[in-house]
Write a structure and sequence with these properties.
Elements lengths: L2 E2 L2 E2 L6 H4 L19 E2 L43 H12 L5 E10 L6 E9 L7 E7 L5 E4 L2 E4 L6 H10 L3 E4 L6 E6 L4 H16 L4 E6 L9 H14 L1 H13 L9 H11 L4 H8 L2 H16 L4 E2 L1 E3 L2 E5 L2 H9 L4 E5 L6 E2 L4
Parallel strand pairs: 3-4, 10-11, 14-15
Antiparallel strand pairs: 1-2, 4-5, 5-6, 6-7, 7-8, 9-11, 10-13, 12-16, 13-15
Helix pairs in contact: 5-6, 5-8, 5-9, 6-7, 7-8
């Protein structure tokens, strides 16, 4: 399902929407705090033996308090997952969006043993909102959802393990609070133009939410950006000397991205170190050490382990897709900092090209 300016464009869960749900997320315990998007009222039906195809009804284009067809128990032929579990999962996925409503319309058995098919009807609260179907499959162990070629964590708290991973392994330069109670991690590449464009949003987030610990985590896309790895290595070395100096250094690199060429790239990085008030020769020597290279490799591995293949991507409390700053702000205000902010107004760079 693609979203643009809060509008549902089609009814399928697409890679764009689910790419970030494999990661996560802040360590704030806010279960039950959400007041934004929510499922329409629904009573979980009992599983039935009969199976039948579910068809989308023609509901017209008028705004309705309840735009969804009533739940029909004959479409609930699988015993797991439960409706409550699906709704909790979708809250984790879509909770940032106060205008979205949905209803679980089917949980069905499939020809694959113990694989369940889930059908959800989704709409918005605005005028002329359309109702669209979303379909995904749940694996036999109940721990993963499959939509197209994307596999994501599933369950009532689908991102708890991945949240712990970020808490333990995110080691980039930090801004904001010292506590990790609300840990927000930005994966970015210093040679990525879209990352440069996203920094104003990151700066605003730090100002507006002083209770958050915001981490810049390096994810150099080496296949696209030849100076990204070295820029990340320099960054770690700057951070080791002085955490706050990293953000002066990174701003200088972003400002001079066009000069990251074979002819001027090395001097550009050194000039950025100078602007940060540090010794370029010392940082260059540090960046060339095996220990620093291992640290950059470990940061790349972290990004890969949590399913990231693009920059910039931002990980917060839950795995939701946000479109621009307003979604980030509104989600945090509802105690749900979005788990994925894909900067759609800026675009993104993908690992491996494309």
């Amino acid at each position: 399902m693609k979203i643009l300016n809060g509008k549902i464009l089609n009814g399928k869960i697409s890679n764009w929407m689910l790419a970030g749900v494999v990661t996560a997320l802040s360590v704030t315990a806010v279960a039950g705090a959400q007041t934004a998007a929510a499922p329409a009222a629904q009573t979980a039906p009992a599983a039935q033996k009969a199976d039948a195809p579910l068809k989308l009804q023609s509901l017209g284009q008028d705004t309705k308090a309840d735009p969804f067809p009533p739940v029909n128990q004959k479409y609930f032929t699988a015993s797991t997952p439960t409706v409550d579990t699906v709704n909790a999962f979708l809250k984790a996925l879509w909770g940032y969006d106060p205008d979205r409503i949905w209803r679980v319309e089917a949980i069905q058995t499939t020809s694959a043993p113990s694989v369940s098919k889930v059908v959800v009807f989704v709409s918005g609260k605005g005028p002329n909102a359309k109702v669209q179907p979303t379909v995904f499959f749940v694996t036999p162990d109940g721990k993963h959802a499959v939509a197209g070629d994307t596999v994501v964590p599933f369950g009532a708290t689908p991102f708890a393990d991945l949240r712990k991973t970020l808490q333990a392994r995110a080691d980039g330069a930090t801004r904001g609070a010292t506590s990790k109670d609300l840990l927000l991690v930005e994966f970015a590449d210093l040679q990525c133009p879209h990352c440069k464009e996203a920094q104003s949003t990151m700066d605003q987030l730090v100002k507006d939410f002083p209770n958050a610990r915001v981490v810049y985590q390096s994810f150099p896309l080496v296949d696209l950006h030849p100076f990204a790895f070295k820029a990340a290595a320099y960054g770690y070395c700057v951070q080791k000397q002085k955490n706050d100096a990293f953000f002066v250094y990174s701003a200088a690199v972003f400002d001079t991205q066009a000069a990251l060429t074979n002819e001027t790239g090395n001097q550009t990085l050194k000039d950025a170190v100078t602007k940060a008030g540090l010794d370029p020769a010392a940082i260059d020597a540090c960046a060339a050490t095996p220990a620093t290279k291992d640290q950059v490799d470990a940061s790349i591995k972290l990004a890969q382990d949590v399913g990231i293949d693009q920059t910039p991507i931002f990980r917060g409390e839950r795995a939701s897709v946000a479109v621009g700053w307003n979604s980030v702000r509104d989600a945090e205000d509802d105690h749900l900092v979005p788990g994925v902010t894909r900067w759609r107004e800026h675009g993104s760079d993908r690992a491996g090209g494309g």
